[in-house]
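Researcher: Following up on the earlier apo prediction. This time include the ligand. It's adenosine-5'-triphosphate, with the SMILES given after the sequence.
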Amino acid sequence: MSEKTDLLVVENLKKYFSVGRGKVLHAVDNVSFTVPRGTTLGLVGESGCGKTTVGRTLVRLYEPDGGKILFDGQDISGVRGREKRELTRRMQMVYQDPYASLNPFFTVGEIITEGLEIHGIGAGKKERMEIAYGLLEKVGLHREHANRFPHEFSGGQRQRVGLARSLAVNPDFIVCDEAISALDVSVQAQIVNMLCDFQESMGLTYLFIAHDLSMVRYISDRTAVMYLGTVVEVGDNREVYDHPAHPYTQGLLQAVPVADPDYEQERSRQNIMLGEVSSPVNPGPGCRFCSRCPHVTERCRQEMPALRPVGTGHLAACHALEQGG
Ligand SMILES: Nc1ncnc2c1ncn2[C@@H]1O[C@H](COP(=O)(O)OP(=O)(O)OP(=O)(O)O)[C@@H](O)[C@H]1O
Ligand SMILES: [Mg+2]
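Model: Understood. Below is the ligand-bound prediction.
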């Protein structure tokens, strides 16, 4: 397996939504990152910063409004027809609420074999059911579960069914969008460990979207931090978590509770996360974080900073970092 190559290269990806009366919401604006084959990129940021929109645009549930998505060397930002269908097999998306995406009128067996049938995997119904049984066991369920309906399962079990359905079509890349956020902590750990095992055994590549920084740090190799439609920092985990460069990332990390009263006091004093959030609708030309940033200058209000290297395998978009060398 060629581990060094990138499975996914995203360059200046844009997704805008028209929200009436000439107003345009810049949900994803010039987003760039890479995901090396067989690794996990964590995607973090506050609610509404565009994480889900990035995921949905990558798997082509949304048409991009600009930029490139290179998947396995091919620009897939404009593919159609048969090529697009093959892509929907290779790129899967797992959601926070699997219940909403599991057809309540289908048995679990039917849910899993549906994708096999669409993509012509398995010689007939019987063979496809055998594949489904194998997948159920793989995700820690039993073959008997194939005859049951989604409502008969717990949240964690439903997430396993959703995962079995995604794995059925033998994908290369899975977007896990808050896939474990709604589950109990112990169940979260089980699902995360399972995802790690599958990554090892099947060579899968993940984009792991979550609010919970500690979970993202645990599961991912690299992390991208989003703020109002833009990536403000991306890099290897040891760089991003131990040497956060962007003021927003520093603020996010400070917001993770620490069991030290002195530190807690200092932290609330410095809390930059309380400032006003700008709007993603018709945004100004400057840095999206300038309304909350403690280091803001006039240049920040006028000019959007680009992602630049700040360490090994570590990029950040901030004018203050540039000036500091
Ligand atoms: N279909 C849509 N039409 C209009 N605006 C949308 C649409 N989908 C998302 N948005 C807007 O785009 C922005 C990004 O939304 P998105 O759901 O990608 O954020 P998110 O980071 O996934 O948030 P959360 O953490 O709450 O899931 C938000 O301002 C949202 O209101
Ligand atoms: Mg989301």
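Model: The CA atoms of residues 121 and 279 lie 46 Å apart.
Researcher: Noted. I'll compare it with the apo version next.
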